[in-house]
């Protein structure tokens, strides 16, 4: 099981939460200011609607409240490379204050609720919320670490290692239980293929193998893994890059 595989130090559990989620880094007062700002900026998107468009100026920093977002680059001939997913609680466009134009497109995977913070609104919030700046930097650092792992995935890992690593990543980020836990998973096999540089047929074949070998099943927009430790060993998965803080409760 998971607790018998991970190296010494903090280990992911059902209560573990990554610092990529801003609220996990904020004290009570700052957290209240943050959550108030999010409630004021809340709006909804339908499946496929764009939050950001490659080449266009950033309009707002988006914090995902419910649902998932996919980020991608698309070539003129229609081929896409998925660059990442944004989960509930995560900032989607953290480079708002640094970029003149977006380097990717971001769309809602399904029905989505997110808070949109304008540049002026974010700067005002940073002045009032003393811990927010450090929390954003920490989240940005973890996002960069995740991006490096995705690069390694498409560069040198085998197909089975790629898929196993991504499943472990998304499972741990959502606080998946070490014993037959389930987490949200609204991602299609086609989207997994675009993230991993594989065909959907290849993804489907490996998922069937993983279900038989590790009890890793994707059904009804949920991911269940009954033998996480074995799957993590197959992926050579080390969760340190996710910024897990095992001391904070859910």
Automatic annotation (TrEMBL):
It comes from the Bacteria. PROSITE patterns: CNMP_BINDING_3 (PS50042), HTH_CRP_2 (PS51063). Residues 42-126 form the Cyclic nucleotide-binding domain. The keyword Protein biosynthesis does not apply. Residues 157-229 form the HTH crp-type domain. It holds the Pfam family cNMP_binding. Keywords: DNA-binding, Transcription, Transcription regulation. GO terms for molecular function: DNA binding. The keyword Transcription regulation applies. One of its GO terms (biological process) is regulation of DNA-templated transcription. This is Crp/Fnr family transcriptional regulator. It comes from Sphingopyxis macrogoltabida.
């Amino acid at each position: 099981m998971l607790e018998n595989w991970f190296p010494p130090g903090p280990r992911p559990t059902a209560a573990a939460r990554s610092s990529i989620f801003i609220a996990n880094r904020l004290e009570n007062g700052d957290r209240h200011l943050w959550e108030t700002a999010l409630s004021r900026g809340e709006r909804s998107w339908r499946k496929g609607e764009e939050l950001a468009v490659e080449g266009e100026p950033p309009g707002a920093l988006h914090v995902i409240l419910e649902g998932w977002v996919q980020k991608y680059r698309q070539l003129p001939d229609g081929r896409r490379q998925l660059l990442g997913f944004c989960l509930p609680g995560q900032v989607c466009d953290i480079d708002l204050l640094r970029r003149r134009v977006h380097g990717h497109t971001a769309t809602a995977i399904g029905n989505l609720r997110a808070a949109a913070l304008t540049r002026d609104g974010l700067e005002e919030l940073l002045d009032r919320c003393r811990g927010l700046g450090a929390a954003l930097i920490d989240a940005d650092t973890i996002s960069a670490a995740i991006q490096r792992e995705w690069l390694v995935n498409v560069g040198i890992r085998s197909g089975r290692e790629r898929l196993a690593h991504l499943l472990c990543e998304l499972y741990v980020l959502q606080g998946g239980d070490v014993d037959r836990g389930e987490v949200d998973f609204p991602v299609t096999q086609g989207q997994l293929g675009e993230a991993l540089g594989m065909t959907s047929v290849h993804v489907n074949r490996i998922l069937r193998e993983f279900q038989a070998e590790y009890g890793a099943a994707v059904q009804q927009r949920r991911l269940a893994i009954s033998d996480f430790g074995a799957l993590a060993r197959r992926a050579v998965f080390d969760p340190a890059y996710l910024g897990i803080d095992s001391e904070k409760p859910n």
